[in-house]
Design goal:
Length: 498
């Protein structure tokens, strides 16, 4: 279960990381696009407003250059009919006062600055209501325009819908502001802003653009699609990995099965030879004795003598056939290379191969050797794998007779002197006292339909590697099998020169 959780946790973590990376990438791309659109719209609005206020400078400059009219109708008063944003035009002759008595002081001060700077200057400023006056000092007449700034916005060419656009635009000067479009403020998320002065030295209003991007404007559909795509990709990789692991497990089990069949066949031949040699030897001895006795009989018993001779020959022939059979299919010895092996690694490999069997029997094997040093033993790899495989399969079969909720299998690895110790303990029904002495005999089995060769073969393989295999009943119930193998001798350290 722990291994399963670690494996599944790794895949989930990979999905979360890939989803987070993709979400950040998509969100950054969306925010960059929103920022670019925001700046583009703000710069277009700045250019349009700059064109409008520059027109007022041009109007005043034109009035100052025109020949003064001698008529009493003042033709400059027709400007409001041409420019709807110009509310009123005032003209002052050199020795006269400004017609607007309330703003006369502000207009006079602005006229003085205009003559000094030789350009139009602001007089009365009321941005809250979108009004201001622009003064141009000239000879013989000075002019003042009262301008409706809100009416100066060219809405026909405006790049945004002033009612629906999320961008807030305002004109600001000296702590006053005129809101051109309200936008959509947001409490959380990201905030973009751009401040740029209009392109008129006489009317230096700051165009301030602001844009709030809330969490709801992120590309959640794209992020969701990315998460689904990553889930499908990792699911495909996970399925491919499981298929590859299953194929390797099947190949390994097939290899172990082939070795087990060869070893079992060798064990079977050895058992048959052992069981048949005794009766054949008795037949041979009895036939030889009968022939000697028949030699003393009357000559009419020659036929019997010949028959006994044939029996002797057939018995010898049968013994020879059994001997040849044993030599042909004799169990291969632990002929593989005996080399240092880490006992924990062999156990993990065997448990990995039998993972489907553990799941099918609803058994969680307890084995945790991460906290101890590796136990290195001298053994032949295939033989040791087959012993561990047989012990685990034997425990699984024993636990079939126990309710699923009570099944328990414990595998432990340790040291005992100069030997490595592998213990496999189950809480099955245990071993009957009368069966315990015969447990490792060939063809002896306590399971119905069993050949009785697995434990016998395992004990033979262990002995061939210089070890031993034992069995005992566990407390309070169950069986415990203990495999002992010689440890790898520690490397002798070179002597230090005196």
């Amino acid at each position: 279960m722990k291994q399963w959780l670690r494996t599944q946790g790794g895949w989930w973590l990979a999905w979360l990381v890939l989803t987070a990376v993709g979400a950040v990438w998509l969100a950054r791309a969306q925010l960059a696009q929103v920022h670019d659109d925001f700046e583009t719209d703000a710069r277009i609005a700045h250019r349009l407003m700059s064109q409008q206020v520059v027109q007022y400078d041009a109007v005043l400059a034109t009035l100052a250059l025109l020949e003064p009219s001698t008529n009493a109708d003042h033709p400059e008063q027709r400007l409001p009919s041409v420019y709807s944003s110009i509310l009123r035009v005032q003209r002052r002759e050199r020795d006269e006062a400004w017609p607007d008595e309330k703003q006369a002081g502000a207009l006079a001060a602005a006229e003085a600055r205009s003559r000094s700077q030789r350009r139009a200057e602001l007089a009365a400023l009321d941005l809250t209501h979108g009004r201001y006056q622009l003064v141009m000092g000239a000879t013989p007449f000075s002019y003042a325009l009262e301008i409706d700034l809100a009416g100066s916005v060219p809405w026909r060419d405006w790049p945004m819908d002033p009612q629906q656009s999320p961008v807030r635009l305002s004109l600001q000067r000296d702590g006053q502001q005129l809101v051109l479009q309200p936008g959509r403020p947001s409490a959380g998320g990201w905030h973009f802003s751009l401040t740029k002065a209009l392109a008129s030295p006489s009317q230096p209003f700051d165009l301030v653009a602001e844009r709030d991007v809330g969490w709801g404007e992120l590309p959640w559909r794209g992020i969701g699609g990315w998460a689904v795509a990553m889930a499908l990709l990792l699911a495909g990789l996970w399925a491919a990995q499981r298929q590859r692991i299953a194929r390797r497990r099947a190949e390994e089990l097939l290899r172990l099965g082939q070795v087990a069949r060869l070893n079992a066949l060798g064990e079977l031949s050895a058992g048959l030879a052992h069981e048949l040699n005794q009766p054949l030897t008795a037949v041979l001895a009895n036939a030889q004795a009968a022939r000697r006795l028949l030699d003393d009989d009357p000559p009419d018993l020659a036929t019997a003598r010949d028959a006994m001779g044939q029996a002797v020959e057939q018995a010898r022939r049968a013994a020879g056939v059994v001997g040849r059979l044993r030599r042909v299919i004799e169990r291969p010895e632990a002929g593989g290379e005996v080399k240092p092996l880490v006992l924990q690694d062999v156990v993990r490999s065997a448990m990995h191969l039998l993972a489907p069997e553990f799941a099918r029997h609803a058994i969680t094997a307890q084995f945790d050797a991460t906290a101890q040093a590796p136990v290195r033993v001298q053994a032949e790899a295939v033989a040791l794998e087959q012993i561990v495989h047989n012990l685990l399969m034997n425990a699984l079969q024993a636990l079939d007779l126990v309710p699923a909720a009570e099944r328990r299998l414990v595998v432990s690895v340790g040291r005992n002197g100069q030997e490595g110790v592998l213990t496999v303990t189950d809480n099955g029904r245990g071993i009957a006292p009368e069966a315990l002495p015969r447990l490792f005999e060939p063809f002896f089995s306590t399971r119905e339909g069993g050949l009785g060769l697995g434990l016998s073969l395992s004990e033979t393989l262990a002995s061939g590697m210089g070890g031993s295999l034992g069995a005992a009943n566990a407390t309070p119930r169950g069986a415990r099998f203990t495999l002992l193998l010689p440890l790898v001798a520690p490397a002798s350290s070179p002597e230090r020169p005196s």
